[in-house]
């Protein structure tokens, strides 16, 4: 069977790898000059870094088995330390009530508690209820805590008031955190909590996150498949509801019986033949958010201990900072500097997206010294990496727009749509890898996995997590 795959990110390569392992040799087309997509690693100043923080974690046996099969023993366990910077204080993340109360002080803590109980006994009527991000969080945490710990960061990330953001973002990313549970565990300790330490540690490849995908690509090529780099695909070629293959940018058409696409959903749909106006209009309304990563090579090996810090402080423009010095010594080797990556989020039309590199590097240096994370006089070099269409924006009601697109694509025989911007889901690596695995099963084994049903809060069939000695069952 002739299979074409668009995109050599985690989803496309997991699918290609699984097909290759079953004797089907796919041909992968990647627009960029290297593999890994958003989860690639790059070389900078004689060190290895990722595109922002990339913590791989899954409790799904299928995903972890594949990851271990590819990485072998070439990984180490990293103790995660992540904090939130807000008004000059660093709060532990996930939030710990004792820490929060200590740093907010008695007055602010009292206001937070009053606001929490007010919401509990007399909920606000006009906050969007369970439909919007703001309504969902205020209902569970109270307005005051929402304003301190959820509002500023989310608005920086999405560029939308939280009232216009769908509750899905909260449901998928923070649903497991409950204030009452957190308070209980701060009073009772962590007794009875299963595998907490496993969750706070994660497995990280010695060669950087992207090493996993370089190995997958090598496997595909060794088995007889192809991974074509710097080969962007213009469109999937269809004849009504049947796939015929793909067209490259130079007009070359290649025929395939089955196409797997991880290209942005909006582009895929707008370039198919015969799409109805309402479906096109729905696809055009779906938005993505861009990221600008500014890397600084700071001449110190001891800045702050976190893997990354969320920057909630509203007076600072950047939203997150990663310190690659704290991931694995294999990334920096004998170098004595620390590479930091600051993330700025914006829309395609925003001025900052078109700023020159030097101006962005100047902004990053200024912001990190104002944040108090690096002294202003420590010299550093800078490098800028721009990511277009980085985050699918879950604006309120986006599911109503996605549904007709999904219904239309489901009807096209021989087309599988997966991945983060491929299927417009806020995937982490594990979700994209799972989509790739299940897509390969659908193609090679005629399985009938519903790939559109895989969300970031998917339920695991069997739970197992990666430890330093390999996979450990966690029940389920
Ligand atoms: C700053 C940041 C931090 C993150 N942190 C984490 C984390 O801590 N943990 C975690 O698990 N995940 C994290 N992620 C998410 C993770 O990177 C993604 O979930 C994952 O890379 C998605 O894989 P994918 O294959 O679905 O999509 P992508 O990685 O986006 O890959 C899609 C590929 O398709 C290619 N492509 C697109 N259009 C075309 C075309 N027309 N022709 C040919 N090729 C095309 C692209 O070049 C790209 O290589 C983070 C992402 C970012 C940006």
- Tell me the count of domains: 3
Determine the fraction of residues in helical runs and give it as a percent range.
25-40%
* Spatial gap, N to C terminus: 36 Å
Q: Look at the helices and sheets and give the structural class.
A: alpha/beta
Structural shape? globular
Low-pLDDT windows of residues: none
Tell me what the CATH architecture of the largest domain is: 3-Layer(bba) Sandwich
Give a list of the ligands.
Answer: flavin-adenine dinucleotide
What does this molecule look like?
With about 475 residues, the chain is of the alpha/beta class. Helix 1 runs parallel beside helix 9, helix 4 runs antiparallel to helix 5 (about 145-160) and helix 11 crosses helix 14. The protein has three domains: about 5-35 and about 210-285 and about 395-450, FAD/NAD(P)-binding domain, CATH 3.50.50; about 95-195, no CATH class; about 290-390, Protoporphyrinogen oxidase, mitochondrial, domain 2 (Polyamine Oxidase, Chain A, domain 2, Alpha-Beta Complex), CATH 3.90.660.20. The longest helix has 25 residues, at about 95-120. Strand 11 and strand 12 (about 255) form a beta hairpin. It is globular and about 65 Å long. Strands 7-6-15-16-17-14-18 form a seven-stranded mixed sheet, with helices on both faces. A five-stranded parallel sheet has the order 9-2-1-13-19, covered by helices on one side. Strands 10-11-12 form a three-stranded antiparallel sheet. It has helices spanning about 10-20, 60-70, 95-120, 135-140, 145-160, 170-175, 180-190, 195-200, 210-220, 265-270, 275-285, 330, 355-370, 400-410, 430-445; strands at about 5, 25-30, 40-45, 45-50, 75-80, 80-85, 90-95, 200-205, 225-230, 235-240, 240-250, 255, 260, 290-300, 310, 320-325, 340-345, 380-390, 415, 465, 470-475. Flavin-adenine dinucleotide (FAD) binds next to helix 1, strand 18 and helix 15.
């Amino acid at each position: 069977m002739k299979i074409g795959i668009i995109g050599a990110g985690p989803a496309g390569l997991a699918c290609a790898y699984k097909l290759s392992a079953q004797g089907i040799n796919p041909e992968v087309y990647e627009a960029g000059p290297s593999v890994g997509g958003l989860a690639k690693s790059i070389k900078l100043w004689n060190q290895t870094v990722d595109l922002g923080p990339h913590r791989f974690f899954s409790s799904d046996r299928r995903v972890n088995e594949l990851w271990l099969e590819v990485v072998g023993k070439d990984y180490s366990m990293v103790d995660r330390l992540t904090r939130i910077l807000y008004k000059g204080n660093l709060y532990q993340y996930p939030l710990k009530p004792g820490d929060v109360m200590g740093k907010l002080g008695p007055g602010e803590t009292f206001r937070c508690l009053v606001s929490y109980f007010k919401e509990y006994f007399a909920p606000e009527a006009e906050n969007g209820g369970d439909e919007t991000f703001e309504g969902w969080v205020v209902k569970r945490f109270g307005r005051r805590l929402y304003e301190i710990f959820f509002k500023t960061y989310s608005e920086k990330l999405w560029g939308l008031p939280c009232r216009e953001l769908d509750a899905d973002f909260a449901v998928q990313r923070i649903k497991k955190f409950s204030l009452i549970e957190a308070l209980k565990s701060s009073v009772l300790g962590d007794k009875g909590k299963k595998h907490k330490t496993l969750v706070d540690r994660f497995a990280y490849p010695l060669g950087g996150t992207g090493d996993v995908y370089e190995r997958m690509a090598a496997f595909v090529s060794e088995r007889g498949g192809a991974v074509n780099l710097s080969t962007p695909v213009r469109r999937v070629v269809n004849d009504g509801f049947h796939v015929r293959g793909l067209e490259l940018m130079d007009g070359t058409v290649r025929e395939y019986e089955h196409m797997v696409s991880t290209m942005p959903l909006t582009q895929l749909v707008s370039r198919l033949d015969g799409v109805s106006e309402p479906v096109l209009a729905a696809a055009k309304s779906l938005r993505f958010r861009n990221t600008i990563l500014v890397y600084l090579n700071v001449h110190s090996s001891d800045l702050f201990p976190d893997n990354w810090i969320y920057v909630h402080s509203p007076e600072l423009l950047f939203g997150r900072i990663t310190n690659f010095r704290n991931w694995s010594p294999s990334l920096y080797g004998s170098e004595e500097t620390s590479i930091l990556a600051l993330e700025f989020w914006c829309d395609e039309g925003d001025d900052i997206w078109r700023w020159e590199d030097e101006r962005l590097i100047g902004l990053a240096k200024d912001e990190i010294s104002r944040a108090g994370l690096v002294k202003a006089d420590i010299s550093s070099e800078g490098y800028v990496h721009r990511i277009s269409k980085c985050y699918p924006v879950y604006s309120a009601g986006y599911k109503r727009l996605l549904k007709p697109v999904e219904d239309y694509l489901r009807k096209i025989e021989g087309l599988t749509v997966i991945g983060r911007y491929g299927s417009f889901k806020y995937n982490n690596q594990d979700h994209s890898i799972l989509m790739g695995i299940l897509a390969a099963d659908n193609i090679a084994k005629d399985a009938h996995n519903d790939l559109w049903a895989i969300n970031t809060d998917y339920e695991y069939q069997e739970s197992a997590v990666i430890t330093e000695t390999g996979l450990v069952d966690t029940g389920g």
